[in-house]
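User: Quick sanity check before I run a bigger batch. Here is a single chain. Can you write out its predicted 3D structure?
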Amino acid sequence: MYSKKILLFIVSFCFILLYSGCGGSEEVVWLDWPEALEATEAADKKVVVFIHLPGCDVCDRMREETFGHPVIADYLNRYFHVVDFSGLYEGTIPLKDHDWTFIKDGDSGYHQLALALTDAQDYIDYPSTVLLNEEMERISFVSGELAPSELEMLLNYVNTDSFWETPPEEYKENFIGKIPKEE
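Assistant: Done. Predicted structure follows.
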């Protein structure tokens, strides 16, 4: 009698875990700039900024396939604050003693901070992934789409502070991650 109840409880519990999004189907916790600034003050973590445009197919694919990969999502949520940053964001962002704003340019425009974070002169490549230290200073950035295995290597390189002593090419050559390189 009790064994049937226990078995029913275990099956029910597994069913709930499977369909509630728990147990491995983790998603990235995305923050906007105000949330990221607050979170960085509260917890000593590095920051990943995903700069994108609405309607950008490559940006959408990277968000879904790369940031949506369970290994990436887990790693990001453990070790980083992750900022969702549209290059068309029209708000002001107070960062490093400067108020960064949106600049209207014809029918469109760009955000000054997106330009500054990517070292762009007059054109921002979308998507771009920027890594900042705990003081919100840029460590690195990559323009263009990254595969899950590429982002895993980059996140590990930055999170472990390997960038201080190991050139990126050498780190990339020797890195063995959880995600196969073809992904």
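Residues 4-23 have pLDDT under 50 and may be disordered.

User: Great, the batch can go ahead then.
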